[in-house]
Amino acid sequence: MSRFVFQRLLALVPVAVGVTLLVFSLLHLTGDPIRLLYGLNVPEEIVQQRREELGLNRPVPVQYLLWLGRAVRGDLGQSITTGDRVVAMIGARVGPTLELTILALLVTLTVSIPAGIVAAVRRDTWLDALSRIAALFWVSMPIFWLGLLFILVFGVKLGWLPISGRAETFWSLDGLRTHLLPVLTLGLPPAALFTRLTRSSMLEVIGEEYIRTARSKGLAERTVIVRHALRNALIPLLTLIGLRLPWLFGGAVITETVFAWPGMGRLLVDSVLKRDYPVVQGIVMAMAALVVASSLLVDLLYAYVDPRIRYD
User: Fold this and answer.
1) Which one of 78, 216, 243, 298 is most buried, by most CB atoms within 10 A?
2) Which residues 6+ apart lie within 8 Å of 207 measured at CB?
């Protein structure tokens, strides 16, 4: 197990280097951040002096290697626009982003697994048809549009929930009210795909001989479904969770922007608009690390769900 974990952590290195190299190259194709910061009316001498102070007058490959060398030592540099340390800026935003993503994943699983089980057990009934219609509705809804719809209905028309911001703690009435719309916006669209996969996996498992054997022994239907069928049907679901985690982090960028959520996604959008290279590179590297760590956790859960899987 430890060897497997070490190999997966080692795989993070080329992924992080490749992602940061790609982002670094693309950002430098978008224009001069110093000229954007100071405007066109500032003399060229002042702009050139600022470029030299930040090392932006050097060739791009040299800039990247210098940045990578500092990043290995835990120094992601300073923001071009504010002068703050990038590590501190990311550290202040990573908590809200993880909170939003984890709560959205819980919403996805809480909605999709029971709906998928009911649709499989009650196959070709009105419950199955309702599940398919609901799945089609959610999967067709873009995140930004769903967020705007929630804001219009529950924030503007009904006035029940705030349309932006985040309370410091989730475990309060204000926390629940500020978290509800962003979490539902990010968590409901993927629930459609999870519901359909749970249904198909359950239908496949329910047709197995060991399920018929369990029923022939007189076990209660609930025991057969929950204890014998669901556990085996969860393996494809874990695979989908691993595949959808990058999508959730990407969706968090849109959700945080729509609801003014103070997370890494909103900071990323602001930094891209200002061409704040060090902040953008730091956030992309942090998100790549979160995705790899989440995928590693999903791989380890395989062994728990299916005891036949070993990583020795």
Assistant:
1) 78
2) none
Question: What is the residue whose two structure tokens read 């529950």?
Answer: 154
CA of residue 109 relative to chain centroid, distance? 14
Count, residues in the chain? 312
Enumerate the β-bridge partners of residue 78. Answer: 85
Is the pTM for the entire model greater than 0.85? no
Q: Are 120 and 114 in contact (CB under 8 A)?
A: no
Rg (CA), the chain: 24
The burial class, CB within 10 Å (0-12 / 13-18 / 19+), for 28 is: middle
- CA proximity to 277, closest of 101, 42, 29: 29
Q: In angstroms, rounded to a whole number, what is the distance separating the alpha carbons of residues 100 and 104?
A: 6
d(CA 190, CA 232): 21
Cα–Cα distance for residue pair 27/280, rounded to 1 Å: 9
C-beta of residue 282 within 8 angstroms of C-beta of residue 23: no
pLDDT tens by residue, 44-78: 777 788 778 777 778 888 888 888 888 888 888 88
